[in-house]
UniProtKB/TrEMBL annotation:
Needed cofactors: NAD(+)
UniProt keyword terms in alphabetical order: NAD, One-carbon metabolism
UniProt GO BP: one-carbon metabolic process; S-adenosylmethionine cycle
Name of protein: Adenosylhomocysteinase
Span of domain S-adenosyl-L-homocysteine hydrolase NAD binding: 295-467
Family per record: Belongs to the adenosylhomocysteinase family.
InterPro entries xref list: Adenosylhomocyst_ase-like_sf, Adenosylhomocysteinase-like, Ado_hCys_hydrolase_NAD-bd, NAD(P)-bd_dom_sf
Superkingdom of this protein's organism: Bacteria
Family matches, as PANTHER family: ADENOSYLHOMOCYSTEINASE
Organism lineage string: Bacteria, Bacillati, Actinomycetota, Actinomycetes, Micrococcales
Gene3D superfamilies: Adenosylhomocysteinase-like, NAD(P)-binding Rossmann-like Domain
């Protein structure tokens, strides 16, 4: 085999592996990291390549034939058997070790066991089955009489998992309303959720091209505050800020809020610093059960896979050869940026990190990536991902520095993280070339180069795909429920508060048990600071353990 032939074979193998992994996640909006997987392929080079990519994503490999979350085989047929007739234990009749969802059989021939129904009701039911920690926390909430009848407004991306979460809140005895922006709403899910008379839905249930999306969103946001919620579960602190500005009458009824995201916690902290915050807000985003899973793992996987899915589907407009061998520039190396870099690298990308914080840039080096300043890091990238949650991270000057044909996407993100408004002002023109892909071309006097912007510059994981996987949203929603309980039971003062460590541990314990894990019990009476012995026990105490002379404190 010549070098070129071997290179082509390696590229084809990498693309087949990538497509199989993406298909596995997409089949049920599932998480690869932490999942149990088996790889039963005939060709050892393909088996090793797939197994290594899965390991790098955090999957737990098991021998073929064991009950697993994902079974990768050469060929799959609809009844969950490979064509040689071998029954895979993760077929629809069985449950995977991860909880209530059945395992998925994925064939490298493109076949996938289609376990999830296509209807909105089926997709919501599927999501609910994969959220055991949320269900447990909702059960505890419902058992506490203090929460009965509490009015809770939910402002989150409206897709199957959010719908299942809203129903669990209603099951717990809360009065529930859900708001979602046009660009963040699955209209079929909104329509199905609205059938539940316990839940008010302030989100579009069908497209309305005659009405600007901004007008629809503004009307729905005002309406949910007029609904008079006592508590908000917010995303981006948009409703919190609206209640403190244009809809201040809502503050008379509001008693607290829980904020889901980094981009929402930032303005809330500013409000608190300026003495403008009139509510207690729990920074759910800062909880370990949120940031270490949803931000790092969930957003990392969902964004990388969504970018690849969109580009692969647009191969008629632009040939797609896979992530392997491409150069990705990740702007920002917080939890989201780290996750994007991790999953892109697992699929074979060369990753360079662009950061302002030298500590984070140093961490990127130690994670095996390059760390470069913007001019160098961006100019040679095939794919540029903004993972900062900061307005105009990619301004017109930065976009102009990209090479012709570069792909630009936002991970998670906020409005206008890519400065498309500046590009328009400078004469750039855009046209859609495929679903979720727009070509932005500079004016001729600027060289006429073009870049491909995904999902109109919105968060690619929730505008061009189905959002973060069920397993991490299970943790996030359970954390939100713990925050709601903390707000109603302790009634903290106005300001920004952390979720208690005890609540973090309760949420994690519920998820750990559902996934088949275990942990040693904590000491009944841990010492302040976590030391195992009294502070007076130290290396240099006297031979008889006597206290030093004086007031009993060690001397220097």
């Amino acid at each position: 085999m010549t070098d070129s032939t071997e290179c082509e074979a390696g590229a084809a193998r990498g693309l087949a592996v990538e497509r199989a992994i993406r298909a596995a996640a997409r089949a049920g909006n599932r998480l690869i990291s932490g999942a149990t997987v088996s790889v039963d392929l005939e060709r050892p080079e393909m088996r090793d390549h797939l197994a290594e990519a899965l390991r790098r994503m955090g999957a737990r490999l098991r021998p073929a034939g064991e009950a697993v979350d994902f079974a990768f085989v050469d060929r799959a047929i609809p009844d969950g058997r490979s064509v040689d007739g071998a029954l895979h234990e993760c077929a629809a009749a069985d449950r995977s070790p991860a909880g209530g969802l059945p395992g998925i059989v994925v064939g490298l021939d493109g076949g996938v066991r289609p376990l999830r129904g296509a209807s909105a009701a089926s997709r919501i039911a599927w999501a609910a089955a994969g959220m055991p920690a949320t269900a447990e926390l909702a059960g505890r909430l419902g058992a506490a009489s203090a929460h009965r009848g509490v009015r809770v407004g939910v402002s989150l991306v409206l897709e199957p998992k959010t719908a299942a979460f809203a129903r669990l809140l209603a099951d717990a005895g809360c009065s529930v309303a859900v708001f979602s922006a046009v660009s963040e709403t699955d209209a079929e899910i909104a329509e199905e959720l609205a059938r539940d008379e316990r839940i008010a839905v302030f989100a579009p249930r069908a497209a309305d091209p005659a009405r600007p999306a901004a007008d629809v969103d503004a009307a729905h946001a005002a309406a949910i505050l007029d609904w008079a919620p006592e508590y908000l579960i917010d995303d981006g602190a948009h409703l919190i800020r609206l209640a403190h500005s244009e809809r201040s009458a809502a503050l008379a009824r509001l008693r607290g809020a829980a904020e889901e995201t980094t981009s929402g916690v930032r303005p809330v902290r500013e409000m608190a610093a300026l003495d403008a915050l009139r509510l207690p807000v729990i920074a759910v985003n800062d909880a370990r059960t949120k940031t270490d899973f949803d931000n790092l793992i969930g957003t990392g996987q969902s964004c990388v896979f969504a970018i690849a899915d969109v580009l692969d589907a647009a191969s008629d407009a632009r040939p797609y050869a896979g992530v392997a061998g491409t150069r990705w520039a990740v702007i920002g190396y917080g939890p989201v940026g780290r996750g994007v870099a991790r999953f892109a690298a697992a699929l074979g990308a060369e990753v360079v990190v662009v950061e302002r914080d030298p500590v984070r840039a140093l961490a990127a080096l130690h994670d095996g990536h390059e760390a470069e300043a913007s001019p160098t890091g961006l100019s040679r990238a095939d794919v540029v991902v903004s993972a900062t949650g900061v307005w105009h991270t990619l301004d017109a000057r930065a976009v102009s520095s990209l090479q012709d044909g570069a792909v630009v996407a936002v991970a998670g993100g906020i409005d206008d993280e890519i400065a498309l408004d500046e590009l328009r002002e400078e004469g750039w023109e855009d046209r859609g070339v495929a679903r979720g892909v727009a070509e932005w071309r500079a004016p001729a006097q600027r060289g006429g180069r073009a870049v491909l912007v995904l999902a109109d510059g919105g968060g690619v994981n929730y505008t061009a795909a189905e959002g973060n996987p069920i397993e991490v949203m299970d943790l996030s929603f359970a954390t939100q429920l713990a925050a709601l309980a903390q707000l109603t039971e302790s009634e903290p003062r106005a300001g920004v508060h952390r979720l208690s460590e005890a609540d973090e541990r309760r949420v994690a314990a519920a998820a750990l048990a559902a996934r088949g894990g275990a942990v040693d019990p904590s000491p009944d009476s841990p010492r302040a600071g976590g030391a195992a012995q009294p502070w007076t026990v130290h290396r240099y105490r006297s031979a008889r353990g006597e206290r030093p002379e004086g007031d009993g404190a060690p001397t220097l």
